[in-house]
Amino acid sequence: MSAPRRRVAIVGAGPAGAYAAGQLLASRQRPEVDLFERLPTPWGLLRGGVAPDHQEIKALDKLFEEEVMRPGCRFFGNVELGTDITHDDLLRHYSAVIYAVGAQTDKSLGIEGEDLPGSLPATDFVGWYNGHPDRRALAPDLNVRRAVIIGNGNVAADVARVLTRDVTELERTDIADHALAALRESTIEEVVVLGRRGPAQAAFTNAELRELGHMDGVGLRVAPEEIELDALSQEWLDGEASFTARQNVKLLSEFAQRPAGDAARRIELRFLRSPVAILGDARVEAIEVARNELYRDDGGAIRARSTEGVETIECGLILRSVGYRAVPLPGVPFDERNYVLPNERGRVLDAASGRPAPGVYAVGWIKRGPTGILGTNKRDAAETVACLIEDLDAGAVPDPPHAGAASIDALLAERKPGHVTFDGWRAIDRHEVDRGRTDDRPRVKLSDPDELIAAAGG
Ligand code: NAP
Known about the structure:
The protein is of the alpha/beta class. The chain has 17 helices and 18 strands. A seven-stranded mixed sheet has the order 3-2-1-4-18-17-16, sandwiched between helices. The longest helix has 19 residues, at about 375-395. The protein is globular, with a radius of gyration of 23 Å. The mean pLDDT is about 95. The chain binds NADP nicotinamide-adenine-dinucleotide phosphate.
């Protein structure tokens, strides 16, 4: 008689968790996988992060459906770690637990006025236009003329596009209805994107920067003086700079040579600027911005520091797009300096001994920090899954006291009777896709948790 299949819990059903689940199910050991998710819906940032005008990326959900929603894998949506189920519960029921919870909050700037109405984390704005249940009530005021985005990574590019794109283009996407309604009434004409370092250090990837320069009805402005390279950047570009950085500089030079044009809406890129204070009585009215210069720190990294010059930019909306940040998980070791689970190739390290904690693993942003594009998670998951399989083979993972699937079912029946299964998600999916049919949209999302649960049949 063959040994019973081992059972693995994955916490977080975003791209990293989905890749890990698919790879485990396809592995030689073929463990059974239970996928736990705080929201009633799977696929994490694919649904709640990727911008609605990037539907071709969102189509990755078909791959996840194929690779993950198959025999041997179950979904427990609407189940929250720490509230409905604990780390210890998972260790008692599974041979291994993989954390794939991503980075749940945003980095703050620590400047005066940061919390004035009208100043928002870009990550909240992203959740709002994507119908994330936690952000549906955000109601940003778009009845302003100029918005300023702080940071120049791909999230900044996403929000700059969504703020300026012709609404008729968004009407055919899965953007949340509340966002579509607000964008129809938006009076925003100009979005200024501020990078704290120079053009060579912009965090955009090439495709995202190129796209900003090729939007119908939107002018991209890059003043030639903004992209003059200082000696340090020039030396860096001639030497160790990445291909992405070189291409970005080329693209920016092309954009800077374009005539100003008379587009109704504009995106303007500025560099070497750091926010100093956000000004306004009852809400955002302006932002004070310092001029920066670049220097190498003791470790050789190129950093920005402020110089004397300060300018004021009038604006009514500020989106702080300076990166995501992970939060500690109850009962799981956490690296407070790097905001990740301390790990070696995905094996989570015990806080006291510094050695791998048997049966505990990490993938995605909670493992490596909030970097890389969606596809990066495939490689990342492969590394963790390989370590897990190696540990299973070597007998380095203890058998849990309650190994059978029935005992976790009994626990959840008691703790979270309203959890959502893959059948529940299929029902939500059908409902949303049906709602989209009349308007030729891929889906019309539900964002109210009660409506989602009801649509799941719970
Ligand atoms: P990101 O790429 O790390 O960019 C963060 C930006 O914030 C950088 O420009 C950074 O400047 C700046 N910043 C950080 N702290 C700051 C401060 N105190 N003051 C001023 N500026 C500050 O992060 P992200 O845009 O949130 O994206 C997260 C990850 O998701 C990235 O890997 C991104 O590529 C990925 N993503 C991909 C897509 C896509 O593929 N289309 C879409 C969205 C997101 P410094 O460089 O100087 O630190």
